[in-house]
């Protein structure tokens, strides 16, 4: 499987990848002019050692490329990992790339994330961020309908502006932004991917980006089972 559906209309697609668990091992062993031809138990023990002791550069010789379609609120959270990857403590990883579709150039029909009536969450009781329990169905139904009406109004104004001759880069100001789906390519090293997963698989991460992190994990783990097993924080 190379594509994983997320939320109502989103997805993650594995576009390409380079290397394997064996690539990690051989990157580490090149210091001694040694190379393995087939992954062995000894090689897996080396991967465990590298991850445990924080010797992370060998994991940056493996690269993955994804196409992601997600609401803007997810994309902007995700983008922080590209900005911070070269400076994050313990990573030093600048091998990332991000290319996103732009409504300066395209006028395809806008698509929006609309939670179902049973997906609206309350504010948390003891925190300034995150969310709490699911709201009641009556309130949820009202919120879903209000969001649909708000989106329809924005799309109507956007289309009217385009028809009036306004350029696409300004017409997009009429579109409700945070729930609008955007598409991008993300290319990153295995270490950087696992850093993202460790942060966004946590129970207190926003649920929507947790869902995308789970998709990234499902698509990536079969390719690098030993390395991902050791780089991810162990959870109950």
Automatic annotation (TrEMBL):
Record-linked InterPro entries: Thymidylate_synthase_ThyX, Thymidylate_synthase_ThyX_sf
EC primary class: transferase
Family matches, as Gene3D superfamilies: 3.30.1360.170
SUPFAM superfamilies according to UniProt: Thymidylate synthase-complementing protein Thy1
E.C. code: 2.1.1.148
One Pfam short name: Thy1
Single GO BP term: dTMP biosynthetic process
Secretion signal span: none
A molecular function GO annotation: thymidylate synthase activity
NCBIfam families hit by this protein: thyX
Alphabetical list of PANTHER family matching this protein: FLAVIN-DEPENDENT THYMIDYLATE SYNTHASE (PTHR34934)
Protein name: FAD-dependent thymidylate synthase
């Amino acid at each position: 499987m190379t594509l994983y559906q997320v939320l109502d209309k989103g997805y993650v697609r594995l576009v390409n990848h380079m290397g394997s668990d064996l690539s990690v091992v051989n990157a580490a062993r090149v210091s001694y002019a040694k190379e393995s031809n087939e992954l062995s138990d000894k090689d897996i023990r080396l991967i465990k050692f590298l991850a445990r002791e924080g010797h992370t550069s060998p994991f940056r010789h493996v690269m993955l490329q994804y196409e992601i379609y997600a609401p803007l609120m997810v994309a902007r959270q995700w983008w922080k990992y590209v900005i911070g990857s070269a400076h994050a403590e313990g990573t030093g990883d600048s091998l990332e790339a991000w290319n996103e579709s732009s409504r300066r150039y395209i006028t395809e029909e806008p698509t929006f994330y609309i939670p179902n009536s049973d997906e609206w969450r309350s504010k948390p009781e003891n925190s300034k961020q995150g969310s709490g329990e699911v709201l009641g169905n009556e309130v949820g139904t009202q919120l879903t309908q209000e969001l649909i009406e708000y989106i329809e109004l924005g799309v109507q104004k956007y289309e009217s502006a385009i028809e009036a001759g306004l350029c696409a880069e300004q017409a997009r100001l009429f579109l409700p932004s945070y729930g609008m789906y955007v598409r991008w390519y993300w290319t990153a090293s295995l270490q950087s991917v696992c850093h993202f997963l460790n942060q966004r698989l946590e129970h207190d991460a926003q649920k929507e980006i947790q869902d995308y992190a789970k998709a990234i994990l499902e698509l990536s783990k079969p390719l690098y089972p030993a390395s991902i097993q050791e780089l991810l924080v162990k959870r109950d």
